[in-house]
Specification:
The structure is a single chain. The protein is mostly helical. It has one domain. The protein is 83% helix and 0% strand. Helix 1 packs antiparallel against helix 2 and helix 2 runs antiparallel to helix 3. The radius of gyration is 24 Å and the shape is elongated.
């Protein structure tokens, strides 16, 4: 291989690696923003929920100890469902 070709391949590998690194950084930042918004949404949802004070404190503790899992549990199982009107 000629010196110029080897240098060009090296530059393209470096650019590809840099592009992958930037893509991963953007994905990590977006994931972090999603987790923070999900966490805050769960906390505000608990504040507005029609559950007792003890229940709110318990859910706050669960979410503070297990931020993602606690938030997911709140939205899946803990949040009171509206009663259907018949």
């Amino acid at each position: 291989m000629s010196h110029h070709l080897a240098q060009a391949l090296s530059i393209s590998r470096d650019a590809a690696a840099q592009g992958i690194g930037i893509g991963l950084l953007i994905a990590l930042i977006a994931g972090g923003i999603f987790l923070v918004v999900f966490f805050l949404a769960a906390l505000f949802s608990i504040l507005g929920a029609d559950i007792g004070c003890g229940g709110k404190i318990l859910w706050f503790l669960v979410i503070l100890c297990l931020p993602f899992l606690g938030s997911l549990l709140w939205f899946v199982a803990g949040r009171p469902r509206p009663r259907p009107y018949y």
